[in-house]
Automatic annotation (TrEMBL):
Protein species of origin: Paracoccus albicereus
Subunit annotation: Heterotrimer of A, B and C subunits.
EC number: 6.3.5.-
Main function: Allows the formation of correctly charged Asn-tRNA(Asn) or Gln-tRNA(Gln) through the transamidation of misacylated Asp-tRNA(Asn) or Glu-tRNA(Gln) in organisms which lack either or both of asparaginyl-tRNA or glutaminyl-tRNA synthetases. The reaction takes place in the presence of glutamine and ATP through an activated phospho-Asp-tRNA(Asn) or phospho-Glu-tRNA(Gln).
Catalytic activity: L-aspartyl-tRNA(Asn) + L-glutamine + ATP + H2O = L-asparaginyl-tRNA(Asn) + L-glutamate + ADP + phosphate + 2 H(+); L-glutamyl-tRNA(Gln) + L-glutamine + ATP + H2O = L-glutaminyl-tRNA(Gln) + L-glutamate + ADP + phosphate + H(+)
Lineage: Bacteria, Pseudomonadati, Pseudomonadota, Alphaproteobacteria, Rhodobacterales
Entry similarity comment: Belongs to the GatC family.
PANTHER family named among the record's database cross-references: GLUTAMYL-TRNA(GLN) AMIDOTRANSFERASE SUBUNIT C, MITOCHONDRIAL
InterPro entries linked to this entry: Asp/Glu-ADT_sf_sub_c, GatC
Gene expressing this chain: gatC
Pfam family of the protein (one): GatC
Name by which UniProt lists this protein: Aspartyl/glutamyl-tRNA(Asn/Gln) amidotransferase subunit C
Keywords attached to this entry: ATP-binding, Ligase, Nucleotide-binding, Protein biosynthesis
Length: 95
């Protein structure tokens, strides 16, 4: 699949990235290369392959799931620019 300069311009706009007109051909080529690589990956037969979180099989460290109150509200709120009555205070957004 090949990306045109107009499509590259649209992608840049959607991503809110300013791209100069002279850089559009290079961006279109790079996006086309990425899509070609994805098509190449789709050809790989992964039937029966277990999903993995890393390249080396290992068990992740886990801790007991214990419900607590946190007991650190004052410490957390000390980082807030404005805290009132034990909560974060934020400006009103909806009228």
């Amino acid at each position: 699949m090949s990306i045109t300069e107009n499509e590259a311009r649209k992608v840049a706009h959607l991503a809110r990235i300013r791209v100069e007109d002279e850089a559009l051909p290079a961006l279109a080529q790079e996006l086309s290369s990425i899509l070609q690589f994805m098509e190449q990956l789709n050809e790989v037969d992964v039937e029966g392959v277990e999903p993995m979180t890393g390249v080396t099989p290992m068990r992740l460290k886990r801790r007991d799931d214990v419900v607590t109150t946190g007991e650190m509200a004052d410490k957390v709120l000390s980082n807030a620019p404005d805290a009132r009555e034990g909560f974060f205070a934020v400006p009103k957004v909806v009228e």
